[in-house]
Amino acid sequence: MKKSALLLLFVAIVAGGIFTSCHKTVDKNATDFIGTWVGSSVTNNYQIIINDDGTGTYTKYALLTVSDTYSGKVRYYDNTLQIDKQKFDVNQIPTINGTIWSMQIESIVYVKQ
């Protein structure tokens, strides 16, 4: 019985490793994403903070109030930025033009502060 329990545990660990390897955690190996990013639209302001420990926060401000906020583990995969369980389409990965970093998420241009 112990062998079958160990085998089951081994299979679970291997399967979990295979699943998580499909996603890249945004951490110190993806330094382009790390930092404080701000963006705006006609009606809203946005802030994305990505920490070097792989966590982050997305905040959407509408008329001086917070209308949406998500915090947790940050992942980037398949042109998707995921903060906790919330997924965002990445239209443009972080790029530098001169000294200004920018990225585009959900059609909003963000500038690194």
Approximately what portion of the residues adopt beta-strand conformation? over 45%
What is the CA-based Rg, rounded? Answer: 18 Å
From the 3D structure, determine the CATH topology.
Lipocalin
Count helical runs: 1
Could you estimate the helical fraction of the residues in percent? 10-25%
Listing every helix as H and every strand as E from the N terminus to the C terminus, the arrangement reads: HEEEEEEEEE
The top level CATH class name = Mainly Beta
Q: Could you say which structural class the secondary elements and strand pairing correspond to?
A: alpha+beta
Largest sheet: 8 strands, antiparallel, barrel
Question: Quick one: how many beta strands?
Answer: 9
Order of strands side by side in the largest beta sheet? 2-3-4-5-6-7-8-9
N-end to C-end Cα span: 57 Å
The CATH level-2 architecture is identified as Beta Barrel
Walk me through this protein's architecture.
The protein is of the alpha+beta class and 113 residues long. It has one domain (25-112): Lipocalin (Beta Barrel), CATH 2.40.128. 17% of the residues lie in helices and 56% in strands. The chain has one helix at residues 2-20; strands at residues 24-25, 35-40, 44-50, 55-62, 65-77, 80-83, 86-97, 100-105, 108-112. The chain has an 8-stranded antiparallel β-barrel. A hairpin with a 2-residue loop joins strand 7 and strand 8 (100-105). The longest helix is centred in the N-terminal third of the chain and has 19 residues, at 2-20. The protein is globular and about 35 Å long.
